[in-house]
Amino acid sequence: MKKTKFLAAFLTLSLCIASLAGCGAKPEESIASSETPKTEAATGEAPSEEAAKLKMMVFPATENYEKINEQFLALYPELDAKVDIEVELGGSGDGDVAQKLRLALASGQNLPDIIRLNYTQLPEFVEAGVLEPLDSYIKPYEGDIIDSAKNVMKYNDEYYAFPREVKPKVWFYRADIFEECGIDPYQIKTIDEYIAAGEKIRETYPDAHMENYNVPSKNYDLMMMLSATNGRFCDEEGNYNLASDPDVKLTFERIKKLYDSEVNSTVAEWSADWAPAFSSGEIVSQLIGGWFKTDFMNFKLEDQKGKWAIAPWPEEIREGSDAGGAIWVIPAASKNKELAAEIMAKMCFENDAAKIIYDVTGVIPALKSSQEDPYFNAAHDYYASSLGPVNFESMNYLKVYPYTPASTQEVTIVLQYLDEYLAGNMTLDSALQTAQTDLINQIGNPYEQ
Amino acid sequence: MYFKKMQSRTKQKFVPYIFILPFIISYVAFFLYPAIYSFVLSFFSYKGYGKAKFIGLSNYINLINYDTMWNSLGNTFFYFLLSFIPTMIFAFLLALIVRSKPISRFQSIYKPIIFLPQICAVVASALCFKIIFGERVGVISQLLGKAIPFLSDMQLMKWTVVVLITWRAIGWYFIIYLSGLTTIGDDIMEAANIDGASAVQSTWHITMPMMKPTFMLAFVTNAIGSLKLYTEPNLLLSQNYDPPMQVAPYVNLIINSLSGGQFGMASAAGWILVVVILILTLIQLKFFGGDD
What we know:
- By secondary structure, chain A is of the alpha+beta class.
- Chain A has helices at about 1-15, 65-75, 75-80, 95-105, 120-125, 135-140, 150-155, 175-180, 190-205, 220-225, 245-260, 275-280, 290-300, 335-350, 350-360, 370, 375, 385-395, 405-420, 430-440, and strands spanning about 50-60, 85-90, 115-120, 155, 160, 160-165, 170-175, 285-290, 310, 325-330.
- The longest helix of chain A has 16 residues, at about 1-15.
- Chain B is about 75% helix and about 0% strand.
- Chain B is an all-alpha fold.
- Chain B has one domain: MetI-like (MetI-like fold, Orthogonal Bundle).
- In chain B, helix 3 (about 65-100) packs antiparallel against helix 11 and helix 8 packs antiparallel against helix 12 (about 230-235).
């Protein structure tokens, strides 16, 4: 009987720990070092008779970059002859790709040559020394890159990333309603004026709302609002001190002010109720990132065609960005890193390549030469105004929050307490203090991980 | 002769081991080694690549002092307990009904219908539930003519998950109970009937005691599965982004640590879960295991 019990206990334990199987990786076998021996392929000189294979890891789908690469290589036959780009799906979001990159670095297997990430992840991989510095590839184009966009490509003043999409803050609004109510978005400078504008619209359209900040909060809402200030969760040495940071406090208060205002709708973002709220006129404005232009069109709201326009955010909060932007990085251990860098430099900084990307994805390049190009400034098929001029203008206000190697976790923790504060379960001070305690407890020092 | 006999005995002795060798090798390579490795890793600070730094019990201490850990564990227990009770009751009752004489001849119709939610892909089920429980455009809100924030109110969000889990699980445990019921011979039930036992008495005094091993299997596997819950709440409650930690199950804590490049912390969180599941399972074994 004892034997049976022992066996039962053993089997139970086995079942319990089944979930842990596969957690391991060998630290000592990691290739987390930039000191990779240079092979023939690493020089970028592929054998003349055979094209070098480059693996490009993207999210959330491969379709766009399969199209872009095909057209891009057709545009540059000299590159087409020496490279074959294979687009690989890294997952549904940047977190998935970062995780795949970690595993590839740990195992030394299946390391992509070009990887799409968000700027949020850049600090972790740069601090770990696993990314290829790109100064020499970017310098020739430096004069043409919009200055603020350079921040999305740099960490510790060195270039480590190519910009896939710079993400300035853009205000989407119902041009027809704003005009009818006599509101010019460029005249709205503060959050109070923004709320007042909403109240004015509600005199004519009682169901209209200017925003929908809700619980649970969205990380991009927090980070866009925070990056408008100089607030940060920790100092440069990695000491978490947000409870005493006046700008973090100000950010929480600003979000709360919008959340509590009458012009805030209860519709949850990305829920099934969101798109109908645009159609019904419940939401007439959105303070969001420039990337929303594509998502909004994907709602396929034909009745909204020609009604929406864009402007920079109100002056008081117009600086900042949503996570800086989407970037391309090249692992230092990539076998074809030089060729990969050469291709990405052309893809990101040459105007003709930028047009291909714009056609497929709607991404507006962060290039001074594109700023004047009528191609990017033409009237839009869907929106009431051209997207180019406002996007370029907003790029001038682009400011990147000083992300740390632990930013993903930091934001997850802080959001929890923003929710508690918004819901009225905690005071501002206790929410920030508890968030700070958790950050210290869970992360310690983000630069010493 | 003696030598040949010895050789044959040795052969006989080792042949079974050779047969189970592939399993043993895969068990050690893909289960035991990673499990032990993750246990070792739980004492290190390690971001998945590069050098690991020994930090002793820090990961465990930090987790125990982390309110969110207890909150996530509480969420997991909420999902487990509140789905466990209705799942087990409904699954058993359905099995009894389907096994009962008037219905049993229609088993081939009822069994697949009841089991259907289990074979529906969890992603598809979660999407359907999102539509059913949508705040404004949702089926329930439309029927009631009132917007109910099933997927945005922190308390209602948890209940929605419980409904989804229960709906999916009933079919599975129904089959388990049905197979358990088939092991009870008709002669025993007939004897009880002749002795004048009512249907309730037969169920209470004969069926249920004889089903004890099946109950134990169902309870233990449900507890282990439920405490490792991840997919359902994440699919149902996420709106383009992960669900908020206020409603997230415990496994989200592990995933968050992995996403944040804290493999040591993730391993420690995993081992805390192992201990919790082990304690719960031993309690269940103690209560339902009996002398067997």
